[in-house]
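in:
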């Protein structure tokens, strides 16, 4: 019987050349803070094992034959304060050392706003992503890399091969479009089920895990920036013993919005009403998310806005988007659009059953009649 790797493997080591072993040892221990775990032979050392910062390094002569000198990235607090401000070093054995800021703010690519329409019927493929989920990109071009919106499916349902993880983001939310999904979040109590119409705000670096889903689950995920790190947390167990619903995560609070029984109020355009998810309050106004539907009128007002990001996804029904320049666009369930700042546009020919998911950054912005 083949033994399980997890049981059999006791430790892992990165093998690097042992060139100038004495100088390389001093470099790694005195300058970078590693410690010596073993060294041999005592009378003429040729192999040394070092550990530090979550890494084991084996400096070896003949064992490292053909091994590249490699590059080590050391994630630091305030790297500019270390080693006289140097951000890159070279060890005596040729290993390249990069000192990077582990607490740097999320880098935002320059915003490149554009009018985007994506249709479910256009045949854009769903591709396999993390944890076996299928992703459809809703914003080709991603506004210069600033924003991503994904239509995510889990066709077969059941347990999801996920793990405790977190995201290094400025903003991220999940809306349950169809079906249900069971989730668990750090310091937010036991696992819960997100039903169709419900939404969660995932604050920066909150630990969470997807546990299981219904067959045919579909969710919408919106994030900023488009490319961001997803990091596993192998130590934290969910659910946590602590319950802290008001905990601050990077200036934001966790939100679980439940559609059942939620109130409606007038939207920013006359003739529509809005079910607010509470994300504006939880992010200090950074973002606003909710569902929009007609309220006794068909819209048609031509306006423009001054927001960084306005995203509309048709959940049910249909409407026509008339923007200055391109032809009128008829959108139905599964279609979406991004409307850039200063572009005159109108929402019209709304079906009675129209419902839109709207996400904006910021939550409150100027809207004026279009010229």
């Amino acid at each position: 019987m083949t033994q399980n790797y997890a049981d059999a493997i006791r430790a892992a080591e990165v093998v690097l050349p042992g060139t100038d072993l004495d100088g390389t040892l001093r470099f790694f221990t005195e300058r970078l803070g590693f410690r010596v775990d073993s060294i041999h032979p005592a009378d003429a050392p040729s192999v040394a094992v070092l550990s530090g910062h979550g890494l084991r390094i084996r400096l070896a002569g003949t064992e490292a034959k053909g091994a590249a000198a490699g590059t080590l990235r050391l994630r630091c607090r305030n790297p500019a304060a270390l080693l006289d401000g140097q951000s890159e070093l070279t060890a005596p054995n040729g290993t390249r050392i990069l000192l990077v800021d582990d607490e740097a703010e999320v880098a935002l690519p320059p915003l490149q706003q554009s009018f985007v329409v994506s249709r479910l019927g256009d045949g854009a493929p769903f591709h396999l992503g993390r944890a076996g989920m299928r992703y459809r990109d809703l914003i080709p071009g991603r506004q210069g890399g600033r924003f991503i919106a994904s239509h995510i499916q889990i066709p077969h349902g059941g347990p999801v091969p996920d793990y405790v993880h977190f995201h290094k983001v400025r903003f991220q939310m999940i809306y349950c479009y169809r079906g249900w999904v069971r989730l668990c979040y750090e310091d937010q109590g036991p696992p819960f089920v997100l039903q169709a119409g419900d939404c969660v705000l995932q604050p920066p670096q909150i630990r969470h895990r997807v546990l299981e889903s219904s067959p045919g689950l579909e969710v919408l995920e919106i994030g900023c920036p488009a490319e961001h790190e997803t990091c596993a947390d192998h130590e934290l167990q969910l659910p946590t013993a602590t319950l802290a619903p008001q905990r601050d995560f990077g200036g934001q609070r966790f939100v679980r919005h439940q559609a059942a029984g939620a109130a409606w109020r007038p939207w920013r355009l006359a003739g529509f009403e809005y079910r607010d998810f509470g994300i504006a309050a939880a992010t200090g106004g950074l973002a606003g998310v909710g569902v929009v539907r007609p309220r006794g009128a068909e819209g048609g007002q031509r306006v423009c806005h001054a927001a960084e990001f306005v995203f509309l996804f048709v959940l049910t029904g249909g409407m026509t988007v008339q923007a200055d320049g391109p032809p009128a666009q008829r959108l139905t369930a599964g279609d979406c659009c991004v409307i850039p700042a200063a572009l005159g546009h109108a929402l019209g020919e709304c079906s009675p059953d129209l419902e839109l998911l709207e996400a904006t950054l910021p939550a409150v912005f100027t809207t004026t009649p279009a010229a």
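note: The chain has a mean pLDDT of 90.
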